[in-house]
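hiii, so i know i said id send this last week but things got crazy w the move. better late than never?? heres the sequnce for the chain we talked about at the cafe, plus the structure i predicted for it. fair warning i was half asleep when i ran it
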Amino acid sequence: MSDFWRLFFSIIIALPLTFLTLPANSAPILITQITAGDFLELGVDKIQRGDYQEAIENFNQAIQLEKDLAVAYSDRCLAYLQLQDYHQAIADCTQAINFAPDNSEAYLNRGVAFYRQGDYPAAIVDHNRAIALKPYDFRAYYNRGLARAGDGKDSEAILDFNLALTQIPRISSLLLADIYNDRGLAHFVLQDTQAAMLDFSLAIRLNANDYRAYFNRACACGRNGNDFGAVRDFSQVIRLNPSNAQAYVNRGVAQYRLGYHLAAIADLQKASEYFENQGKRVAYEKTLDLLKNLRQKISFATEIALL
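okay and structure toks below
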């Protein structure tokens, strides 16, 4: 399931610098006064460059100059989200809301932090508030849909994904693909495989390089008994994400059901190698057990055929 938090940065106005000069017959001295707005602008630039720790330092300096600058707390939250420090992200957004109760971005960002912590009810509450402040913000509907899906409310999640689709700019094909993919997962959980397949296919049409949509459609194919389709889509996953061990496992199972026993064994062997290299010991052991069972079944079937 995709993790969505396409959050817009606050609009920063570059404040003019203050210049003090000596009389014309003297050498000029340039004195620059750094403002909180300047530090905000620097922080946003650092976030866009992926330098989150430096961004935090810039926002800290902005807050030192203006303690009640709500946007500095809200923007600093973005950096903490990227660093997976959700506790601090929540604290910053709460402070931003205290200074500016109508700051919809702070509610949106805090909702994302709650979602990442697994506190889905709190995330839903914050996205409700964001929607109340900005009823046409597709991000809030999409994020609330993710939180509702996490909370096991897949029917309500689908309604939110539908609302997000009515609000999102049509030019955002990659974002559209994410929404279709997550709506497809909600349909899949509700066992509406036909609707899930349609959504996964729409996601693939919009973003042919998203291996998640191929993976999900492959699982839907497997549920429908379409092992050829499952092998096709898991092969695409492996092409786009060659170290995806689970795709090798699932393709191996589908290959086995189709009677391609050697291919199935090769896939499971490859999966076990990746799991071991990735330090996923439990998955590695389970894959070895599955490989052992398949080999026994293949050996038994071969003995029966020779009788």
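btw The domain at 1-133 is CATH 1.25.40.10 (Serine Threonine Protein Phosphatase 5, Tetratricopeptide repeat). thought thatd interest u
miss u guys!!
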